[in-house]
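hey can u check if this looks right to u? its 170 residues, i copy pasted from the old doc so theres a chance i mangled smth
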Amino acid sequence: MEAPHHQAPAATLKITVNSPEQMGELGRRLAKLLRPGDLVMLTGELGAGKTTLTRGLGEGLGVRGAVTSPTFVIARVHPPLGEGPALVHVDAYRLGGGLDEMEDLDLDVSLPESVIVVEWGDGKVEELSEDRLHVVIDRAVGDTTDEVREVTFTALGERWADADLAALGA
């Protein structure tokens, strides 16, 4: 049995976000970097801004439907309004088995042709793709306004080797 394969990140970037508006804007910028088949894992406590980021991402991709937290449906598909990919927004909080369960959801889209954003996916969806973008949203330490977030992007796999994460901080 081989040891688990831990690949080195292709790139990391840390951005400070000062408001929900900025978080949405960050999502819109992130959308420009994404391609069909991309897997984005979102990690952050309740209220950290995961859905706000995803809403901006959906706006940037130009998908249909209001992006809200998919907690009770587990996964929600936002079809594209134009030529772009669909956005599949997954809440893996109650998914136990990860990938198999994801496939059991019978999503009405082809995952390779969609952008997949997974909340609470740590330890559950990594096997979906070696190439993924891990986004961790933390409340800024010592922040008193409660709006400031530290957003850390960690890009994994060849897909991201030449991606310009710096564009996110523009």
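DSSP finds three helices and seven strands in the chain.
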